[in-house]
Write a structure and sequence with these properties.
single chain; about 180 residues; alpha+beta; 7 strands; globular; disordered N terminus
Length: about 180
């Protein structure tokens, strides 16, 4: 007698994401890249991104405030915060730092626990490059698949929100 296994749609979706990621060398359909040149030294911008006493003041799109619950800035460390939207809703976030190369690069996985985690909402790479005495900050987001990227663009305005976040970072760093 054959034993039927229970169908698990979540497990199937996770496996599909793994297969897509492994077979899709061209990731452009699941990426978003934004950058901004900030008129401040890289060390100052790095500090604003990595210190809890600073990041809480500028993180997120216009109109958002933050409650920082945990920021363990080390590879494998977790960052938990709640973004309070201008719509009155709370948006909890949980990320895990997957790579840190001071003061050049920070990588973290949001909604997952490791780089390549198929359960992640997205993976982020922030780079900090010195350009003519200023700092070019680039955010590179990787979504599990093109559908997740499309949803981020259409439902939450990921590019506009990311650009507003970079503008808020620039404004915060310049006035400190």
């Amino acid at each position: 007698m054959r034993i039927l296994k229970t169908f698990n749609p979540r497990r199937r979706k996770v496996q599909e994401r793994k297969n897509n990621a492994a077979n899709n060398a061209d990731t452009s359909d699941r990426e978003i890249i934004m950058s901004r040149l900030i008129d401040a030294p890289r060390e100052l911008v790095w500090e604003a991104m990595t210190k809890p006493e600073h990041v809480v003041h500028w993180w997120g799109p216009n109109g958002f405030t933050n409650t920082l619950e945990k920021m363990d800035f080390r590879v494998g460390g977790e960052w938990h915060h709640v973004m309070h939207g201008p719509d009155g809703k709370n948006y909890p976030n949980r990320s895990v730092y997957t790579a840190i190369d001071k003061p050049h690069r920070i990588e973290f996985c949001t909604g997952g626990t490791y780089k390549g985690d198929p359960n992640a909402i997205f993976e982020a790479i922030w780079t900090f490059e010195v350009v003519d005495g200023q700092t070019k900050v680039t955010i590179h987001l990787f979504f599990p698949d093109a559908e997740a990227r499309k949803m981020a663009l259409e439902k939450i305005g990921a590019i506009e929100g990311g650009n507003q976040t970079l503008a808020r970072l620039a404004g915060y760093v310049i006035k400190t």
